[in-house]
Amino acid sequence: MSYESAKAQFADWGVDTDAAIKVLKDIPISIHCWQGDDVVGFENQTGTSGGGIQATGNHPGRARNPDELRADLEFAYAKIPGSHRLNLHAMYMDTDDTPDRDEIEYRHFAPWVDWARGIGIGLDFNPTFFAHKKADDNLTLAHPDKGIRDFWIEHGKRTRDIAAQMGAALGSPCINNIWVPDGFKDLPIDRMAARARLEASLDTMLAEAKSDMLDAVESKLFGIGVEACTVGSHEFYMGYAIRNKTLLCLDMGHFHPTENIADKLSAVALSLDELLLHVSRPMRWDSDHVIMLNDDILAMAHELVSGDLLGKTHIGLDFFDATISRTAAWVIGTRNMQKALLQALLKPWDRLRAAEDALDFTSRFVVTEELKDLPYGAVWSEFCARNGAPTGTELITELDTYQATVAGR
Ligand SMILES: C[C@H](O)[C@H](O)[C@@H](O)C(=O)CO
Ligand SMILES: [Mn+2]
Fold it and tell me: Where the protein is mainly located, per its record (predicted)?
């Protein structure tokens, strides 16, 4: 179907497709570096602790150094319409030095900033509280040993400094997202003590006010090896974020499998200035599958648009699948997020709200279902064409061709 006939069909519903395309173009998505190398990083030192997260698979083409990762990212960005961001973890430093986590400095990441400036993207950042011998007890900021807590507090402080410098250098605030794997494999005796230690460590880490960066905290239900208790649970961080005015990061893989994460957005947004999303696809657990254009993603996008939350929500991705092409994973996952947003932007909101406000649930239902038949694909193709991104078989050929060039790594 041509764009013009699709546009006319949406216009019959009172929906302006050109306006939706324009809004979508300006929604940046923070693409996570760690899909490109299976969450390995570029340090010369790691511990055994995986933090309870696990990339599985051995598809050829894993990026082995910063140059390979940047080349892969550049390819992916070119296939994703619009202008986006990169979400970098501290373990992805680009330096010949071997600083420990409590020794990292901005200069260890400066090549990333130069590169980001060169291709016109913003950066986000994360302290790395896993894959290190001082995290092998599955406790970092909540560790009973003050020496270990202090080590990680120093790491966190340094990432805040680095994030602030990245934000200033690129003229765009850098989100520094804190996720710690802390928890217990078996039932703890004193949850309160562990949570009090985590809170005190965070307070020390975040004490200094900073500009050009935003702090975010990410909760989790459980991870491998911490099945009995995660110290930084949802309730813990929701309270912390509200009290301390940080962003709250909601990761779609960090809740009970039957919980509706989309439903949480409007609930927490009333108490928070800004939110961060880690859009992911859990399968039975926090499996971090590449996101599909499924009901969960469509519901998230629906809530972001219906709740007018796009202005206060930073959209980040968090998945890592090593059984498929890593560049294809980035491209497909990010485009699926955009497709979901496009569908939400193409809804006749006034009509749907009017039906709901009038308690006319029959109309709400029938309109919702009829909307599913509209030609979203034609609008998506037009969006891609206007932004120089391929679709369909052309996209597949380009993904395959690039993968062939990296398969020998
Ligand atoms: C690598 C990320 O920091 C990590 O995936 C974190 O965001 C998470 O979701 C852990 O389960
Ligand atoms: Mn996450």
Answer: cytoplasm
Instruction: Say if CB 61 and CB 325 are below 8 A apart.
Output: yes
**The pTM is what?**
0.97
Q: Is 286 in the pocket of ligand 1 (CB under 6 A)?
A: yes
* Of the options 3.20.20.150, 3.40.30.10, 3.40.50.970, 3.90.1170.50, the CATH number for the domain spanning 28-346: 3.20.20.150
User: What does the domain layout of the chain look like in residue ranges?
Assistant: 28-346
CB–CB of 10/376 below 8 Å?
Answer: no
- 50-64, 105-119, 191-205, 254-268: the lowest-pLDDT one: 50-64
How many angstroms does the Cα of residue 249 sit away from the middle of ligand 2?
8
Residue 286 is assigned to a ligand binding site: yes
CB 317 within 8 A of CB 280: yes
Cα–Cα nearest to 286, from 231, 339, 230: 230
- Quote ipTM for the complex: 0.99
Tell me which of 179, 220, 226, 288 to substitute to probe ligand 1's pocket, judged by most ligand atoms within 8 Å of the beta carbon.
Answer: 179
In this structure, the strands spanning 85-89 and 174-178 are unpaired
